[in-house]
């Protein structure tokens, strides 16, 4: 019985790629150095899967940024501002598209479906000249073959690529991106022909858009595209892979009727209803790649249950046509449990990272072929039983408190307009108040202090002294720049979710459980294994300390319950919304303690609220109801004069704007500049927003420093659709990934632009 892995993490077990990328970007190493690290990582991945017995091993899933940007490079679809004309796209152009450079901004970045992974959004229109400009897919196939590993090259499918794109600036809104299919398919044909010539026998097209609610003409585009590719694909086995949700019935019919396609891959973890479609009818003679091992979470597979599922499918498609697979790429999980030293043995036995999931896939394939590893299956069953019965998982008082939330919407009793009046009397802010989102640059010295404190190499007294000095530096910088509402810079936090999870019960933490978010940015999601509560205050000391250093308002900085949930590996033994309500109650306790501690402005970040939105529209309402309710629970008990902020970034928020309004925050700061001010269009279309709002005025994920004039222009665009008395001026997101040499001049431009517009507004009266 055959086995398959959809994709694999690329950062390396100890973030080797992250450090190689950052060294290259900082000019400390060469392109050759970066390519060597990358080649070594790819080699290790391929050899590991081959040694584990995996038959269908992916290639071209390794990327220096993301797979969609790789496809943009393959198609030569480089926006004109980057100066590319022809030839093989080099790292300079590639990284300029991803990160911007000194003279031009980066392309838009957004979330990859409902994950915390990001991709660079292609900018397309009728004038784009497509050409075969990156041979990465073919080169990596040849590279693996030279190591003795025959791989399945993976390409982002042509239809999904176009549907994940956006119209380039200036392109008429009526232009249909799918009309570009005849222009990009010739490039795909060139790639396919080269892969065939290199000896490839299989090719995988990732077409995740199949799981979305698609109109008929979009489904027809899939049929037309693969009919056009059919002759070029002749002689190859072709797998079309879908993931992240159930596939709708009409999409299933279209997918399983595609010409030239040999095999179909489905996520049977998040898409259990797809099993019914398969049993009702699967095309004879085709392969089913059954994604029964979860690529999005870190819990050990229930091998016995998965084997029953596989055996039922075997009766439908035939023994020789069933392939055991992961539900999606393992990119979304941590790399290898073998590197974990922080987890105790009990919790560790409940988990499976990418390397362990590869073993699970192989074990299931062998068991299906009658070669069951009895000791492996027995150990798995024992671990599952241990988790179900462990007293660490359940806290009866927490469950009762969460259950008692039903029956109330937990809305603040006073309307937002009256609250804003009470807050203005207390805060006395100017028009167009300036602020930042929370974090300030995380310097090498600061990281050293935190690392040495965790390793017990410095005392708590020395640690507190160092963090206080860092806070004072950040406060002084903001006062010198004349920012109106300050932040303490979060020097005590390596990661916004990890920091809170470490102080909440029901969470466990890894030493090396890193997951790529975008580019070189990695996060280490906490593991929520049990009921959640807050044993003691988490941020009050640092926020109060920072407030004592200034007479200006100091924001208390918290991560909201929905974001903590969506940026964690969440327990799968109870509904997600029940876990979220538990987290909300813990954050509510913290909010009320901050208020008692003299903090008058409290920001509860919900950066990931949109990210968790289900992919199917029929499921949106239920998710948004409990997600918005969870946020309101956190701050329903504060006084009118306490100003509640929230922050969101790097997603498409326009389609959930009414739910954002329903959150009933006093002020929302939201990413705007990197997405070409797409957010503003919702207000141009007549949506009324009465609370404070700060659409971001510069992209903090690019090293580029904006000018005062550029930011002033953005503010004026905002004033065309928003009232001046509700508008805030702020960056897109936190500043932790930037350097002080970038942050200081950028924030000076922000403040100078706000003052310039204030002056103009005052003169116009």
Automatic annotation (TrEMBL):
Keywords assigned: Amino-acid biosynthesis, Metal-binding, Methionine biosynthesis, Methyltransferase, Transferase, Zinc
Organism, scientific name: Camelina sativa (False flax)
Domain Cobalamin-independent methionine synthase MetE N-terminal: 3-316
Function text: Catalyzes the transfer of a methyl group from 5-methyltetrahydrofolate to homocysteine resulting in methionine formation.
EC id: 2.1.1.14
Top EC class, one word: transferase
Protein name, per record: 5-methyltetrahydropteroyltriglutamate--homocysteine S-methyltransferase
Keyword Methyltransferase appears in the UniProt entry: yes
InterPro entries: Cbl-indep_Met_Synth_N, Cobalamin-indep_Met_synthase, Met_Synth_C/arc, UROD/MetE-like_sf
Pathway the protein acts in: Amino-acid biosynthesis; L-methionine biosynthesis via de novo pathway; L-methionine from L-homocysteine (MetE route): step 1/1
Catalysed reactions, as listed in the record: 5-methyltetrahydropteroyltri-L-glutamate + L-homocysteine = tetrahydropteroyltri-L-glutamate + L-methionine
Family: Belongs to the vitamin-B12 independent methionine synthase family.
Cobalamin-independent methionine synthase MetE C-terminal/archaeal domain mapped to chain residues: 432-755
Domain of life: Eukaryota
Pfam families given in the database record: Meth_synt_1, Meth_synt_2
Essential cofactor(s): Zn(2+)
